[in-house]
Amino acid sequence: MPTKVRWGVLSTAAIGLKKVIPAMQLGGLTHVTAIASRDRTKAEEAARTLGIEKVYGSYEELLADPDIDVIYNPLPNHLHVPWTIKAAEAGKHVLCEKPLSLTLAEARTLLPIQARTRVKIGEAFMVRTHPQWLRTRELIATGRIGKIRSIQSFFSYHNVNPANIRNIAEYGGGALMDIGCYPIHISRLLFGEEPIRAMGLIDRDPTMKTDRLTSALLEFPSGQSVFTCSTQLVPYQRVNVFGTTGRIEIEIPFNAPNDRPCRILIDDGRDVFGTGITIEAFPICDQYTIQGDAFSKAVLEDTAVPVPLEDAIKNMAVIEAIFRSAASGKAEAP
Fold it and tell me: What is the mean pLDDT of residues 102-123?
């Protein structure tokens, strides 16, 4: 039985070159074997920089390589599903960047593909396996803050470059798709439920037509989640989880740093001045390393991946409901 899973990377996307690949190369179960680009020169340059042995000048060549087990798909959002399908048809497991698709209907087309090809398809929510989120879930499960009733999230950055992929509407750009997917995913994870209704407010950039400021309210059977995301605000992120007797604050919830400890604050609720706050710090780690190894382990042991296709589809349903609500002015059911 192999001890490492052989990965191939579709494209020289920045997230792959700067964050994901270097981190995956540190994994115990993950071997980044090949990289492909439609511009072979770019692939060769990336391979030299990162020490990747195989280079391909097309995505098709990479998918035809019999020595690749898993494809990492960091392509632009509108190419996620088409190339995930091609990878699955080639017999490769796929870790696809978030959001999985442009629409719910498109995401659902992957279900019969996965059933027929019997490959694993997962969404790359690297936060899912980070120790700070595992601990937060443990604290909630053990009743440390009472019964969870409310989640408050904020996620923003500032990018007004019209050429940037995140600002191109037809490619699935905009705040809700790019970063609003995170508070949705985390809210579903912490409540352990699916939202009943969603309400959304959207402000679109007059030129680029992408949503630059989006706020949403999600109604769960056990409580509510409210979040704001923006592509044109000061960079900031924070999550607060409110229970009946306490609160957990995740300091850097989504872009967890790989060069310093992460911290969560646990408030026992004795007063509003913070005298009841204790801080838990987590040893330095890279969530992309953890994500890669967790997916590789699932492949080696034939177990479920951290964020399976079915979960990704449910997240997409909520995103779509928020878009519908912003257009209709009414609450919409995912």
Answer: 98
